[in-house]
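Sample pair:
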Amino acid sequence: MDLKTATVKVGDLNTIAALTFHINYYIVGVLQLLQGGKLEIRDQFSFDLPLIKTQSDWERLRAQLWNNAGLLALALERVNAEDFGTPFVDPRYGTYERNINGMIEHAYYHLGQLVLIKKLLQSKE
């Protein structure tokens, strides 16, 4: 997909680039936690996409998403099965299992949006 397609606005929908950033934002946040860091992500910043000016910028964002998704998968493989039932950072957030499942559902939801936006753009060509 080229930069123009990734950044064109369709009505009041998010752009494909913004959704890509949004998905990656949450992956990076949870990955940081699983690697021993703190959970520092905040919903209010999840669409703060830096300006994408070039095709290289867009390709870099896509590569970051795929790389981080792979790193998250590897980190999840190292989580002990019994830890999935423990509280995720704070008991009010629920368990690791609930949050990981929620994150997967969240990514699928937005990936579905990406597909629909791409189809809308293709229908205008």
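Residues 96-123 form the longest helix (28 residues).
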